[in-house]
Amino acid sequence: MPQRLRIFISSPGDVPDERLRADLVIDKLAQDYSRFFTIDGYRWEHEPMLASGHFQDAVEPPSKFDIVVMILWSRLGTPLPDHTGTRDYRGIDGRAPVTGTEWEYEEALQAARSHGAPDILAFRNVSPAPIDPRDVEARARSIAQLDALDAFWKRHFADRGIFLAAYDEYRTLEEFARRLEESLRKLIERRIAGESGLSGSAIWSVAPFRGLATYEFEHAAIFFGRDGAVAKAAEQLATQARAGSAFLLVSGPSGSGKSSLVKAALVPRLMKPQRITGAAFLRRAVFRPSEGGGDVIAGLADALTRGAGTDGVGLPELLGPGQNPPQLATYLRAAVGEPSFVLAAALGRLTQAGRAEGRLLAYEEAKLILVIDQLEELFTIPGIGAEDRQLFIKLLGGLARSGAVWVIATIRSDFWHRAAEIPELVALAQGFGRLDIAAPSPAELAEMIRKPAQLAGLSFEISDKTGLGLDAVLAEHAATAPGALPLLSFTLDELYRRDVLARQGKVLTYATYEGLGQLEGAIATRADEVVGALPVPAQKALPRVLRMLAAVTTGAQQVAVARSAGVESFTPGSDARALVDALTAARLLVASTDGGEPTVRLAHEALISRWTRARDQLISDRRDLETRELVERQQRRWQETKGRAQRQLLLRDPDLANAVDLTRRWGDELDADTRRFIQASARRARLRQQLTAAAALVFAALAVGAIYAQQQATVQRNRAEAATDQAKAERDRAEAATVQAKAERDRAEAATVQAQAERDRAEAATVQAQTERDRAEAATVQAQTERDRATSEEQRATEARDRAVATQSRLLAERASRLTQQGDTLSAILLSLRHFEIPMTVRPIATRLPRSEALPTRCTIIRCSTSSGMRGNHTFKQLTHTITRVW
Length: 887
Fold this sequence. Notes:
Blueprint: E1 3-10, H1 16-32, E2 37-43, E3 67-72, H2 100-115, E4 119-125, H3 136-156, E5 158-159, E6 162-163, E7 168-170, H4 173-194, H5 227-242, E8 247-252, H6 258-270, E9 279-287, H7 296-305, H8 325-334, H9 340-356, E10 365-372, H10 377-380, H11 386-401, E11 405-412, H12 423-428, E12 434-436, H13 442-455, E13 459-460, H14 470-479, H15 485-502, E14 507-508, H16 510-515, H17 518-532, H18 536-540, H19 542-549, E15 550-552, E16 560-562, E17 565-566, H20 575-585, E18 589-594, E19 597-602, H21 606-610, H22 612-620, H23 622-640, H24 655-666, H25 672-821, H26 825-836, E20 840-842, E21 862-864, H27 876-886
Parallel strand pairs: 1-2, 1-3, 3-4, 4-7, 8-11, 8-12, 9-10, 10-11, 13-14
Antiparallel strand pairs: 5-6, 15-16, 17-19, 18-19, 20-21
Helix pairs in contact: 1-4, 1-5, 5-6, 7-8, 13-14, 15-17, 23-24, 24-25, 25-26, 26-27
């Protein structure tokens, strides 16, 4: 029998994400080592807060546990009193006060030093701590907490570069989870190796694989390999809830295992006690849109109230005495935006009962987890219209925002583009509201294959040639095949059924694997075996059964999808019913009850894509499936419409012709309502044809009389037209004369205007010419005045110059006379010439003339050049006379 292993988580309140991730890591280890240990995680939040004592008194001492994990970041916690009625709270060195975290760690440390147990793991987040820059008091408290944390850390782990004890530092949540899992796994493996009494006995006594069926809540123990995605989903959903909208959409391709991940991993882990602080998930409900029979609100109301609630399924407390699910559906339909009233009341009663029974702590509130599986059925079920889709998603949004319900939905990623049709769904999935599931890694595939087999005490054959186990080969083949999870699960289940159940063995063998056609051929092999074992008439019913259980989506891609069909569609004792029963017994089909009506559907859509016979049949029937989809969609609109407008929604050609042909070939394969709709459309079409024929006869009789009346009318019309033409001609001539007269008048007016313009220009020119004459006369007068003034000025200047010349001549003569008297005749002559400013040339011969010789009036001794520069009327003769006198 597995032993119990208890793990104590010690931390202040600033690491809620780490506490959640630590719980998820412990869940994974508990599942991995369930053959050896029953592993439990424990936190101080697990104990009730008693008003009669200190909360720390209710916490079990860490020394009583096998492993203690301490997680620190920016706080050390709140100081404890030195003493309570239960115990003393002092440090290992006797100091006081100490915080709860200090006491828990040092109490465990003292026990470990004394007895060698418990094992202690310490983790510290070294990313920057949050400090409020605006609140002075809050900032001071934060710094005080950091100082206290640093002092504690130096005391026990690292002081001035000296390492005192082992610890781990981390910066991200993923890094913390990885190191915590590695450390805990080493401690557990060491315990297994050190205790000979531990044995890994089988603890799962039935089939550990699900084939094509989905893993449900009760299969959590055998669902492996998706721990990373589960942890991320839980954290995103918790983040969404803290933001006020507890909604998560898990998206992935067909065959990615999203439904199993949610129902067998995420929901069971969230429903563990104290998993989310303040929330106690006491109830769960699962709903598929196809279960509502076309009315998704009524289907959801039925799913919410289904079950007794004792096993955690459903919330029947929603219904009071005398109430039923249809009444609840009416309420939900009227309050899609705010549906919390009735839910809060029911969950409030659960909360009170849980606290009274001691199952809930005082700060915990009962909540519901609602799973909407295969949300893409909103778009593939013919009975669900656009208005119902909008209403349903709005209701989910109201539930997610109510604070009472956490909503998790799954959808095939190839249908995500249809979300654009519902803006509310796009808004809900924003941010952390959507998680895309990727294909599993090779390591995850190995866990999915080996660990469920280990729980059941099974092993895999090892090849003599390659030395590889069959589990390794399966993992390799699955890693290379897209959407391989359904194939892998089905193959493993077939190996179990043939090697274990049929042969009573404990080893899954290569021979069986090869006989199945390996991974790709396993589904087809099994399906062909089941169908081939039936009588020929039942085998021939396969096309009918496939058409009933599959549909083709609208749009360009035209994807084949599974759909449910009522069991009564296959008449008991018929060949089709025999085939359905055989496929159901082989778990290739799944029987269920949707809204009280027994239904059957494909176990997985992989049966369509991987079974060649089914795939080819649906390809050949694609046009007929499209016609059926169109007819069913139009039939739904017809049923929802009342009054005269209903007749407008009946089928018309060419759709009616296709539908009638389909009815002829398929017969009762179409349900009775669809056939009645086609018949009503055909009757309406025939009535239209009869009315059209009758109308044609009436119109023919009327046409004869109409022809004669038309001929008479034509004669009268021709006469009237002739008179009209004549009157029109007269009117045209009158109008032409009027136009001509108007043109003449316009020309005359234009000539008058032009003549007036010419007169105006002539007058302007005359005025301008007169102005020019006046200006010229004024200029002439001014010029004459200026000439007179200049003449007068010239005369005065001449007189002044003559007076100056006379004065200067007199002075010059006097000076020349003095020079002559002094015997310097030449200087006297030159002085006279300079006075008159006459250019001259003196030749040397002048010095050879005798001073006593008479000087003629004109002599050649001095050559004088006269020019216009000589002043006044002084002629050369005057000059000669002056010179003579001087001489």
